[in-house]
Amino acid sequence: MKNKEKWSGVFPAVLVPFNEDDSIDEESFRDLVKWVASHEGVNGIVVNGHTGEIMTLLPEERAKVVSIAADELKGRIPVISGVSAEGTIETIQHAQAVENAGGEGILLMPPHSWLRFSMQKDAPVNYFKDVANAINIGIVVHQYPADTKSSYSTEQLLEISKIPNVVAFKLGERDMATYELHVRTLQKEAPDCAILTCHDEYLLPTLVQGIEGALVGFGCFVPNLISDLVSHVKNNDIAAAKEVYDEIFKLKHAIYKMDQPSSSSHLRMKEAMYQRGIIRTNHARKPVEPLTQNEKDEITQGLKTVGMID
Predict the structure, then answer these.
(1) Which positions in this protein are listed as binding pyruvate (predicted)?
(2) Whole-prediction pTM value?
(3) 51 annotated to a ligand binding site
């Protein structure tokens, strides 16, 4: 299960195009998955992540998204699905649905009740064990920012790494000191697990720690640039990496406005992809509110600045 090479590289978290009636635009989604996966260096597709608006999808829709992506890719690269639920029983049901739909891994998020109420010391490890025992596919650990109550400690991460199904860690501490500590500790104590950054806004600084790759929403928008960046860093060509990162920096400013992903950032990326003609609609489900015309104009100007649209 712990095939480090398989779980290394770039894993774009792809969005889900919706029709105006809130239904999934399956044709557009298939085209998007195929387009993202066509880029060299993309070693897997992540669906039902925050970029994919998992919180607005019904359980059966989450499974459908996995099934569509798996059918489109036909095993060429793995499909990983985000799994988010409040109770272990429901989490297991979601994880099993991913496996049954053709997914090769899950990105296991913490119960969001922990964000408010925190968690008991042994709860995360037992949570991962219970889910792992119920499925036969890989688990990518979703590490939340260090300033939240659901961010796992170094000790908890090491215990989780011992679970056979756990194949990779998506680290998103957004505190560089904590991030570096976790990277160095996992590299030493859990060398068979891949480490992936999810810091869209700190890609180059987090990649140079010698990790295996990136699992980021921005990989859906510019998979070629993210793949080039990861490749240059792995080849220790920092000059070339910085040149690519300069382009990513400009795009980050246009899309995310330099912040980490927030309540509107994924919608801003969806708008940018719509303006580029990659998807057919820019619609998002409630409670996400539509962008203002001024926000859309900002994105247009940003895309024009970097030559992505005329």
Answers:
(1) 51
(2) 0.96
(3) yes
